[in-house]
What does this fold into?
Amino acid sequence: MSLAVRVIPCLDVDAGRVVKGVNFVDLVDAGDPVEMARVYDAEGADELTFLDITASSGDRATTYDIVRQTAEQVFIPLTVGGGVRTVDDVDKLLRAGADKVGINTAAIARPEVIAEISRRFGNQVLVLSVDARRAPTHGDGAQPSGFEVTTHGGRRSAGIDAVEWVRRAGELGVGEILLNSMDADGTRNGFDVEMISAVRSVTQVPLIASGGAGKLEHFPRAIEAGADAVLAASVFHFGLMTVGQVKQTLKDAGHVIR
It folds into this structure.
């Protein structure tokens, strides 16, 4: 029995507001996170992902407040990421009402933190966010898989192979992978199915595909490439499609939905 495919709206939050851009720049305001979370819960979203995109520099207190308010409004799993560096940060977010916590830059800097968090809270709470883009396979900046990890919203190369990083994170005990295609982000040209299948080939950890959703037919392709869940932001925020329409498209393509 295959697990049901999950459909996950993503709220990118900056200074307490949901924003959306293309390749993480030219951000426009998309609304109030608590209100939008309530709408997505009512629409039948399976989970919500909440990314504090300026947390690494900004004020964390705002985030805890919004997480608390959102958790009171919705009854589906809530993943929160952005600026998470330590076991203590995870503890605070879980106490504020998060069900899962996403980690990215801190794990690249110190991979052991994955094992520390998994040991303390169980791996089901830990989502590794991987911001990956295409890289050359030969010459300067080459990576064996042709995909590299980036930091700072895709602006900086971490100098590590994305596929190898996912494999290692699985060994360290991460519970889930959120695979963001930096090349596809906000373009609405479709998920990077080659990247999804490359990552799927090295891990059995649940895989969420992110970046590039623009049409209903893009979603089944991501699942067929190996994703267990699909995540999107702007197409939902700006009313191009609903969670229900995505679920129906997945169902019509023969996938099990909740």
Summary: The mean pLDDT is 91.
